[in-house]
Amino acid sequence: MKSFAIARPGSHAAAAKLAADKTYTLPVIKSGGIDIIDQMKEGLLEPDLLVHLGSIGEGAATISMEGGRLRIGAGVTLAQIASSPIVIEHCPVLAQTAASAATPAVRNMATIAGNLLQRPRCWYFRQHQFDCLKKGGGTCYAVEGENKYHAIFGGGPCHIVHPSNLAPALVVAGGVAHLVGGKRTSIPIADLFHTPDKGVRTEHVLEPGEVLTHLTCDAAPASGFCGIKEKQSFDWPLAFACVGLRVTDGTIQSAGVCAGAVAPVPWSLPRVAEALAGVKVGDDAAIRAAAVLSGQDARPMRDNGYKVRLLGVAVHRAALKALGREAEGLS
Ligand SMILES: Cc1cc2nc3c(=O)[nH]c(=O)nc-3n(C[C@H](O)[C@H](O)[C@H](O)COP(=O)(O)OP(=O)(O)OC[C@H]3O[C@@H](n4cnc5c(N)ncnc54)[C@H](O)[C@@H]3O)c2cc1C
Ligand code: SF4
Q: Which atom of ligand 2 lies closest to the CA of 133?
């Protein structure tokens, strides 16, 4: 690993200035450091300045309700989100996605901003031997190679899945990222990420020097998450679903459904949402039928067709969780 300097700015604005400072070849923002340090160890990134956000006050690590919306500082950890009574009450899907991510040790360090902006886990990308498209090479090795964990929607020319648990939950809850250091001051989470056809080297639309200060989202009290994993800990999900419902008089009035680990961006499923609207909360057959629609436009690769079925199961269970019920047995 090459040597690097560390800066400890006292504000997000000062961090943004340092991140855009041309005196350095590659200044990089560091929050919890879980992904950044991994990338440095893997030889993917050689910064000469780490701009460490750990010392910033400004509400960077606090959770509150403001004007009916949830406000979460960029430096709030996944462990704080998972155990926050405010998040559990007002946006359970966010608490559940945070609780399910990684391991207790990782959740204690990992921040919400870093979770959204972490780089993909494609094994070809993470191995320095493979100079794939995302690293400026000429090939996506996943096309002909091992693609068990890759995208079934929205792939090409790169077929990563977006690694963040929290991003789909925030899409369902109308999340917004608030920024300093650039021309804009906010961006909806639904617009934060781009598909590989819009640029294969990056996953999000932030410019160098734009720093996330906090997130806001709507209260979504009837919301739920279901992730299906090979291991219960120390792993990313194979497929997961976040569902938010608006229910009155025992009927689902409207729904938001967003899938994760199946596409290069959080993957909204509007047809499933439409099919859920008008369904009686006790009508399991109709909820299951809506969930099955989630796989309709999937384009699996050689080894990942299993994700289509997993996603239907995850959507069904997440919808039941949003209604305050757990699925019985396997679907
Ligand atoms: C074993 C293991 C299992 C895991 N399983 C899961 C899982 O199931 N689900 C899941 O979602 N994640 C999982 N993760 C990933 C983990 O959650 C992320 O690596 C972590 O959330 C990153 O947060 P961080 O604060 O450490 O970010 P950092 O590593 O500090 O930064 C990550 C990126 O965000 C940028 N950044 C950070 N803060 C800001 C800011 N305020 N403004 C602008 N840019 C910023 C950094 O420049 C960097 O590019 C797992 C990780 C491990 C090691
Ligand atoms: S899926 Fe993307 S990151 Fe993985 S090998 Fe292909 S181009 Fe590289």
A: 7
